[in-house]
Every structure is written in structure tokens, then in C-alpha cells.
Write a structure and sequence with these properties.
Blueprint (H helix, E strand, L loop, with lengths): L1 H28 L4 H23 L1 E6 L13 E4 L5 H9 L4 E6 L8 H6 L4 E3 L5 H16 L3 E4 L17 H9 L3 E6 L15 E7 L10 H19 L7
Parallel strand pairs: 1-7, 2-5, 2-6, 3-4, 3-5
Antiparallel strand pairs: 6-7
Helix pairs in contact: 1-2, 2-3, 5-6, 6-7
Length: 246
């Protein structure tokens, strides 16, 4: 049964992605703002998250939203635990401000999905470009943060198996310090239901915990990331203790 439900959900996402992508491309052709294009994309992402509940029984529970800034012009860098594709869809669906992902440019080649994200005001980079890629992140990240868009990054860089910890890289905290905005750590237990690189998903509840804002004024990027890492990993153990008993 989980296999059949996963197939149905995948087909649903593939089919619904097409009209939403065409809508984004069409409104862009007629000069729609980046916020309008983002709202269309967010609607599809929320539909995908909701349909994961309908078809596969994968639901979510969020706590800590009161830690997020309420000023519409206040930028933050969200630093999110990365266990599966689920949180890449979930974060825009639940966050009250537009988000800008930092992602590898190869995703732009994916039919429809890649065309959609290529039409949004986000940051795509060439990982092989080294320091030039980070300069692009800083330049575009500062611009987006100044207009109230929140930049979202996965500090571990890739999806990490349940109960494990990757290497936390400090690029995100360097950006936040240089832009003069706080960081917000986020723990997500998505691998309980949607394991890394797994096609078959399982019913259950994904817990999302939004941590307190951390001021970046006068901070060093490496010790700031160490604080973020400590909070996220401690919170992951609290939310999903079963995964850490091994």
C-alpha cells in the first residue's frame, strides 16, 4: 500500500506541476512581479505538501513560529536540517514571508520544475565556481534580505540520513553576518516518513521546530554556526529520540 500511495502522489505532483509552471511563465511574460510568481509557486508547493497528507498520510506539526520576525522588511537567514525533499516543499508552504533558496544550477535543467524555479527570484550557483559562487550568494542574498525576503539554506549541504549529522558549513552564517541579519535554526524530522533518496514514503507526522532568532552582530561565522548546529542537533534528538538510540 505505501508503494501505491507513493506512486499516486508522484504522479499527482508531476501532473499538477505543469499548469502551475505554465502559469508562472505566462505571468512573467506579461511582466508580473517576482512576488506574484512566488505566490503561484508557493500555491503548488502547498498543494504538494497537502497532497502528501491526502495520499500518503504524511502530515506535519509546527512549533516555534512565534520566534520569527513580524516586521515585513526584516530579513533573516533560515538554517534548516535537511533529511529529505519534503522540507524543500514544506518551508515555503508554512513560512509567512517569501523565501529564496540557494540551489545548484543543474536543477534549472529539470523540465517544468526547473523552469519554474528559474523564473523566481532565487539564487542558483555553479558549485564548481568556488569563491565566485559564494560572492554571488552574498551579492544576491544581501539584495533579497534588504527587501524582506528570507534566504533559506541547508548548512549540511545535502540530505542526511535519519539519526545522523552532516558537516555544518559556515557559508550561511557568513552571509547573515555580512548582511547584518539574524539567523533562525530549524529542526525537521522528515526522514521519519520521507527517507533520504527513498521513493516509498510512510504515514506519520513530520515535526518542525523553529528556534529563537540568533543575533549576528559582532559574531564570528564559525562559532555562530557551531551554536546553530548545537541547537538543531539537540532539538532533533528531542523531537526524534528513537532515531538516536542506536
Amino acid at each position: 500500500m505505501p508503494l501505491i500511495r507513493s506512486v499516486i502522489h508522484m504522479l499527482w505532483m508531476a501532473v499538477t506541476c505543469i499548469p502551475y509552471t505554465l502559469a508562472i511563465l505566462l505571468v512573467r511574460l506579461f511582466g508580473a512581479s517576482s512576488r506574484t510568481r512566488y505566490r503561484i509557486a508557493r500555491a503548488w508547493l502547498k498543494l504538494s505538501v497537502d497532497s502528501a497528507g491526502w495520499f500518503m498520510g504524511v502530515r506535519y506539526r509546527v512549533q516555534g513560529m512565534e520566534h520569527l520576525p513580524t516586521d515585513p522588511l526584516q530579513g533573516v537567514v533560515l538554517l534548516v536540517k535537511h533529511q529529505s525533499t519534503y522540507e524543500t516543499f514544506l518551508m515555503p508552504a508554512i513560512m509567512p514571508r517569501p523565501l529564496a533558496y540557494v540551489f545548484k544550477k543543474e536543477l534549472l535543467q529539470v523540465p517544468f520544475f526547473g523552469w519554474s524555479i528559474g523564473s523566481l527570484d532565487m539564487i542558483h550557483i555553479d558549485r564548481a565556481a568556488g569563491s565566485r559562487a559564494f560572492h554571488k550568494v552574498v551579492e544576491q542574498g544581501k539584495r533579497l534580505l534588504a527587501q524582506g525576503t528570507w534566504v533559506i539554506m541547508f548548512p549540511e549541504g545535502t540530505r542526511i540520513p535519519r539519526g545522523e549529522k552532516g558537516e555544518y558549513k559556515s557559508g550561511a552564517t557568513r552571509l547573515a553576518i555580512m548582511a547584518g541579519v539574524p539567523v533562525v535554526p530549524v529542526a525537521v524530522t522528515s526522514a521519519k516518513c520521507w527517507p533520504r533518496k527513498a521513493f516509498i514514503k510512510h504515514p506519520g507526522v513530520v515535526d518542525v521546530s523553529v528556534g529563537p532568532q540568533i543575533d549576528t552582530t559582532g559574531r564570528k561565522h564559525d562559532e555562530l554556526m557551531a551554536e546553530v548546529e548545537a541547537w538543531i542537533e539537540a532539538e532533533m534528538q528531542r523531537l526524534d529520540p528513537e532515531a538516536y538510540r542506536r
